[in-house]
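Morning!

As promised:
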Amino acid sequence: MKRVALYAAAAGFMVFAGFPFYWMLLTAFKQNRDLYVGAFDTRHVPWVFNDPPTLEHVRLLFGQTEFPRWVLNTLVVVVAVVAITVAVAVPAGYSLARLTGRWGERLGMGIFFTYLIPPTLLFIPFSRVVALLGLQNSLGALILVYPTITIPFCTWLVMGFVRSVPWDIEEQAMIDGYSRLAVILKVAPRLIVPGILTVVVFSFTLVMQEFVYALTFLSSVDRMTVSLGVPIALVRGDVYHWGALMAAALVISIPLAIIYNLFIDRFIQGFTMGAVKG
Amino acid sequence: MIPRRTLADREDVLGVAMLAPALVYVILLVGVPFVLAILLSFSNATAGSLSFGWAGGRNYAAILGDPIFLRSLRNTAIVTIGSQVLVVVLATAAAQVFRAAFHGKRLARLVLLLPWAVPVSLAAIAWTWIFDSTFSVLNWTLKATHLMHGWLYWLGDPGLALVAIIIVQAWRIFPFATVIVLAGLASIPQDVVEAAIVDGAGFWRRLFKVELPLLLPVVAVAVLFGVVYTATDLGVVYILTGGGPANTTQVLPSLAFQRGVLGADLGQGAAIAVFLLPFLIVVAVAMLRLARRAEVGTR
Amino acid sequence: MTAERRGDPIGVGVELRNLSRRFGDFQAVDGVDLSIREGELLVLLGPSGCGKTTLLRMIAGLERPTSGEIFIGGERVDADVPPRARGIAMVFQSYALYPHRTVAQNIAFPLEASGMPRSQIADKVRWAAEMFGIARYLERYPRQLSGGERQRVALCRALVRDPKVFLLDEPLANLDAKLRNTARDELKRFQRRIQRTTVYVTHDQVEAMGLGDRIAVMDHGKVRQIGTPQEVYEDPVDTFVATFVGQPPMNLLEVRDPALPPGTLLGFRPEHFLPRDHFASGEATQVFCFAVRRVEYLGSDRYVYGSVAEQGIGEATVIAKLPAIVATPIPEGEALEFAVPRKALRYFDAATGARRRGEGGP
């Protein structure tokens, strides 16, 4: 009896969490005449394919919209921002964990707290800064600004991670004759690879999900990123192409979800900053 | 000759050098704009020109007399509190379910994480479709199961639209909170739970008197992040309702965007956004308190 | 204190019949038969992984036996009987105090669970706390207490349930070495006073010897020997018990004496291995030529490490434990004549480790 209740509850949560995605799936592949049926018509069941599925929305998405261009733009930004984040946050996190002692801990906390300063406060001054630098409507603006979101949290992540790696191996290397710098350059990287990987994945997902700055800085459709273009620019006049819209949402969501699932434990460690042990 | 300490050995120099880029970046691109935002709120700057004229408290006076602003302040509070209450209930319940072992748990966890993983804007547009006044699959389901007799114009009715926003926020945040609570449950020392069993506590007494109290710091962290993510979120409101109908579902971020970016009145936009700070300061202080408790130790 | 329990039986025995627990392929407890008398303190002694903790947890009801039966107070305890219905109380190695509750609330917890009225709880908590001398800590939190204080709180919490059987899982392991002696003394006196059956798990044989009325030595899920400390020490039933109990461990030598059957091990304890001239001329001893390698001066004793090679006995490292009273100078690197009283010799089968009785010793 308890077992049944358990499965029922699990199913309930899964349905609540997942039905929009199922609906996305249906919408993406349903023919228009199966899709655009008023919902007050209870004889027509929207939850299944009443007509055979079609690829026309997907074809529209990839062939007649700017979606491929947006994917490309997003990739460019992602690669650049991930690179910047790794280059800046990893050494910083290492430094805070190993090289700076007490004041480093305080500073680390301070850097983490900047993560709490939201884009929806900073976008006002940024819109001016970006204009001043002549970066309006360019991907460069995003590349400049996104690290403000990724660096604080990733530094914190790396700091926590490096702290958890026992530092005997590095000490051994110093005894064996390496200078501190050599240890950092030669020995440490291999030890913190999982931490670096987490930073890559986390910045990747952060960039993919960002909306506010993209909305603020990008105005022309061909410059948009996926997260901005899909909800804003997949319209013809007043008409939303729901099929294509949902197809786009699906194409982006599934890989992200898979990646998230693989790294969720690390993320949680970063978020709970020791309130949860281990 | 014993080699002398070189620069490559100086930990303090290396430490600062490795930290510097991040520090500089954060100071220049977070600290400075932050200060700038507050300064702008006292100015009459517009996006068009580069002028910066001192306007004193005029922006604040203007918005505090503006019913739309006051409503957006109220809405921000309603949405944040409403969605987080839902999140706490959902997440603690879901954590109890997901801590047990059952078939297909991995798949279940993947599905559970979907709302959190998907970009906010894409989730928002999907929900817009779900709430669509003509084609809402939600309405269809409610009607087909005879749970509803009229028709719900989700995004067209001010009250309903706010409910819709709360639902979407709760939906996208509760998976994150669930995973955090699960981690917290796993960190409760096993022997303390066993001691409670041996001491004679049944399931409910254990849950309420031992497990939940020990979970409090973890749940607090989840709630604090949830508050930040919800109160400062622009995507859901902008895409779902655009702040409408007729500015009735505006929240602080969306109003700041409308006035400051679309309307090019940087001063007013900044002033509106500044009202997010109380939320954030409360969160930051609460987090610091939690961190201090964690340091002092619970053992 | 005894007056509080008018009419109750003093203590209740525990009986285990053919008790087993397996985890997949691993046999943690293997067919254990054990009979614990009313009011006695029985120690389960053994190395890590020998199954002693699993055994304890099965008695507590925290683990289900794979087979076998448990009787508490003469009544059969089914695997389905939850811990709270078994009349047991348990003290965990970490004490498992509720970190978010004060000492008073910790002690009160089992009473609340049993539905005792508020007013009675407060009195009982006070009574228990005073018995352990922790009444002044009642409003403190566990994290503010020292290890020894926490242990007392844990014992208090266990006592307050008025259990029939106390189960203790290495409760002294987390204390400083210096504290352990006094803690051990306190524990023993406490148990003597309340006279409840107590099962105590430890890997520390000194602790076991000091505390136990009887000791059950365990290895690989089986009970090797059960007996009083004296029996287990002086009359070990196999080489495992002989070498596990006693510090330093019993010396074991392979013997090739034509008078003895092949494959025999000769054992004697280090404290019986003394310079020959220490013994009276009439005493029956076995003499060895002891090549001394190294002497450790430890204050109250000297440990002498060396080897013995003679009479068909192969070369083997042997340890001698000389009390300070025996002041004979022992130079390193020399060969001296040492002896063991005949009645202290023990013989074991080399293949099985089992004790061979009859030759030479008891």
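Chain A is about 75% helix and 0% strand.

Hope this helps with the figure draft.
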